[in-house]
């Protein structure tokens, strides 16, 4: 990392005071400088900062100590901090084991293992075995069976009549009464209807988050009451409560006190191919006991912030949301979550593999959180070929995990904890299986040596909790012009002291690229609006575009504050 990105403490203090003046009407935020690891005072300040959180958050202190150890010259204070933090995390791990907090224990063991500090009397396999034993003692057969994946037959066989009858009994209608909505001075009944399916004999069932969002969303201020309707007794309203929910994967776990007449097993979608037949069960328009069939139209559609979804052509309507997609044996392959109304047959389902990943967290209760590196990137392609080489770090949020670990811009991430990654999707596939607060080892290419061979390096990065709108965090912590890179895909360089910039580079396929911008275009930011409620940001620019003969023009851009490119 160049010294240009690591100003000395005194210089950083001066720049902090001057930046708001230089930025004009910009956001006023200034990114925190990287630590100057060549300056002893800066390193000792970081050591003191880490010590202040050693008791409360030893894993964070351990991550900071390792970053100092890897970047600063050998110092006794750094070595002592690293040793003490490692001991504190080992002690915390032992306490989590004694308390039977296996999720906490697993995260701490993985952190220690990434640093080659894991206690030898435990392994990841032994921790998972103890967690499974605890689930079995609690009577949670659903979680115990997560590792037992039952696969479909290769043929497109239709379910037997007995299987269909059982599946229908295990599917339920989910109703949310939201009182009245007033339109034109007249009150109308506001009802949200969806489907769900039982996965546990104790009365637990799965549905979509968006069906029950008003029950748990703190921003919702209206009336909301959740109940269920059984297919054999549609006139009885059965009370239920939300146990856990995940807005990112659009899944939720509900609990009712009735004994379900049938319970679904979780299968797999990994065997599904385009053209395979699937079956959907639900309550379209409230019409329960509805079974429809179709095929897998496409795979790996990037409609979620994390993870891919299936595109299906089975008839899906209002009320199908949260219903199961099943194979010929009635095993769940996916969960219906969306359809595009103007386009018949264009519907989508969440693969059951994503449900498997978060199901333990859903049972633990509350909102499920996901980890991230505080970064924005894209799949890197080897020069002169079409082969994917890894994930290029295009941007990192100030004070985020990547930023704090000192991973330089344009690094190509090639592995995580020793597991090879070639695409952004592969990296996210590994990230979502970890927990916030876990230290992982990233391997990446930082450049070439004199023989033109790639130069590899490792970083130890502690995953943070992924915000609901990562782009909003970029605006809060960084300069307005810097935030244009992850949001609109354009890197800007200042021209003068106003809000005038030069486009230095573009993210191919990004919003600015698709809007006709090119490198060396002149841009003046006139207005930026961040709408937290809708999750979008809009910008009004005055520009002279090279491709248009430098003619003056006003251009409007709009982008989501979230996208699958954040990781």
Report on the structure:
This protein is α+β, with helices and mostly antiparallel strands. It has three domains: 31-137, no CATH class; 161-366, Beta Barrel (Thrombin, subunit H); 371-465, PDZ domain (Pdz3 Domain), CATH 2.30.42.10. The protein is 28% helix and 32% strand. It is built from 15 helices and 27 strands. The strands form five sheets. It has an eight-stranded mixed sheet, sandwiched between helices. It has a six-stranded antiparallel barrel with strand order 8-9-10-13-12-11. Strands 16, 17, 18, 19, 20 and 21 form a six-stranded antiparallel sheet that branches. Helix 4 (76-98) packs antiparallel against helix 5 (102-114) and helix 5 runs antiparallel to helix 6. The two termini are 21 Å apart. Mean pLDDT is 88; it is low at 1-32.
């Amino acid at each position: 990392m160049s010294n240009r990105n690591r100003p000395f403490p005194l210089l950083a203090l001066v720049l902090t005071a001057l930046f708001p003046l230089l930025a004009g009407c910009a956001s006023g935020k200034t990114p925190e400088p990287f630590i100057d690891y060549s300056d002893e005072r800066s390193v000792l300040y970081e050591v003191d900062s880490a010590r202040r959180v050693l008791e409360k958050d030893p894993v964070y202190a351990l991550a900071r100590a390792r970053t100092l150890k890897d970047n600063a010259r050998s110092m006794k204070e750094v070595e002592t901090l690293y040793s003490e933090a490692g001991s504190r995390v080992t002690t915390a791990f032992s306490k989590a084991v004694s308390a039977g907090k296996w999720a906490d224990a697993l995260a701490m063991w993985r952190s220690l293992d990434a640093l080659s500090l894991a206690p030898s009397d435990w392994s990841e396999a032994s921790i998972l075995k103890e967690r499974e034993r605890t689930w079995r003692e609690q009577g949670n057969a659903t979680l115990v069976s997560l590792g037992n994946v039952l696969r479909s037959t290769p043929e497109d066989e239709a379910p037997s009549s007995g299987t269909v009858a059982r599946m229908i009994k295990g599917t339920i209608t989910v109703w949310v009464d939201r009182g009245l909505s007033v339109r034109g001075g007249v009150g109308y009944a506001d009802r949200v209807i969806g489907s769900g399916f039982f996965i546990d004999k104790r009365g637990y069932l799965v549905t979509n988050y968006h069906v029950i969002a008003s029950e748990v969303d703190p921003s919702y201020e209206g009336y909301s009451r959740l109940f269920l309707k059984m297919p054999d007794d549609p006139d009885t309203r059965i009370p239920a409560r939300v146990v856990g929910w995940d807005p990112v994967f659009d899944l939720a776990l509900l609990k009712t006190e009735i004994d379900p007449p049938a319970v679904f097993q979780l299968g797999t979608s990994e065997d599904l191919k385009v053209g395979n037949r699937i079956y959907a069960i639900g309550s379209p328009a409230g019409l329960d006991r509805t079974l429809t069939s179709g095929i897998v139209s496409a795979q790996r559609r990037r409609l979620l912030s994390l993870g891919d979804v299936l595109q299906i052509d089975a008839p899906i309507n209002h009320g199908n949301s949260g219903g199961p997609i099943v194979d010929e044996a009635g095993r769940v392959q996916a969960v219906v979550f969306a359809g595009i109304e103007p386009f018949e047959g264009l519907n989508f389902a969440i693969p059951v593999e994503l449900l498997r990943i978060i199901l333990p967290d859903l049972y633990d209760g509350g909102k499920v959180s996901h980890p991230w590196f505080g970064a924005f990137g894209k799949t890197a392609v080897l020069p002169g070929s079409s082969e994917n080489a890894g994930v290029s770090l295009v941007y990192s949020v100030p004070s985020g995990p990547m930023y704090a670990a000192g991973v330089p811009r344009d690094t190509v991430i090639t592995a995580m904890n020793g597991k090879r990654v070639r695409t952004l999707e592969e990296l996210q596939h590994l990230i979502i299986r970890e927990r916030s607060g876990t230290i992982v080892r990233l391997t990446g290419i930082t450049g070439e040596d004199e023989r033109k061979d790639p130069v590899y390096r490792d970083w130890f990065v502690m995953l943070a909790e992924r915000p609901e709108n990562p782009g909003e965090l970029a605006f809060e912590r960084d300069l307005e012009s810097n935030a244009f890179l992850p949001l609109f895909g354009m890197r800007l360089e200042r021209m003068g002291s106003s809000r005038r910039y030069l486009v230095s580079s573009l993210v191919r396929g990004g919003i600015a690229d698709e809007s006709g911008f090119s490198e060396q275009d002149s841009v003046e930011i006139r207005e930026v609006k961040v709408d937290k409620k809708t999750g979008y940001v809009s910008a009004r620019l005055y520009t002279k575009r090279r491709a248009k003969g430098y003619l003056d023009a006003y251009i409007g851009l709009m982008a989501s504050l979230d996208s699958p490119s954040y990781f």
